[in-house]
Design goal:
By secondary structure, the protein is mainly alpha-helical. Helix content is 68%, strand content 7%. It has 2 domains: 74 residues; 89 residues.
Amino acid sequence: MKLIEFKNTDTQRIYNDYINRSKRAIKILAPEDQEDCLMEINSYIYEYIQNNPQEQELTAMLNILERLGDPEITLKEVVATKKIDQAVRTFNIKHLMQALLLNLRNGVVYIILFLMVLFGVCFPVLIVLKLIYPEKTGLYIGEHTFFFGIATSKEGVSEVLGNWFIPVVILLSVLFYFIIIFLLKLVKTKKP
């Protein structure tokens, strides 16, 4: 992105400061998304300055920046939306967690999805525990009991998966992850 150059040094300083604040607000995004955001901000500023030649440069800059608002606040929604796009596009757990954390305030659906991801993170832990404590980890079923994980007391229950526990947990974790991504796509398409 090419920065706009102003004649007035105060205007240039204010513009540079706004762009730098915007860069900090969007640094979590992928480089191409950062570039898109900065170009859009830059175009708003440039168009306003060009369409209001009667205003002094400094006054015009202050007016457009007031309309745009603080980048730390106004770019929050943009960052959250772009992070969802990145998570859905890349299937990366890091991007998924960031997207859900950024969107927690956007509704109960995102809270549920975040809790689902946290639950999904437990599956690999169960695999490790099965390797360390094979006799205590598994799917236990009793007359009135159903337990998936570590059992400290095995009275009245029996482990039903045995050596199939690890493949089943791997399959469940992959399935769970794709369900979360699918639900995230679904929520994203219904978002206004």
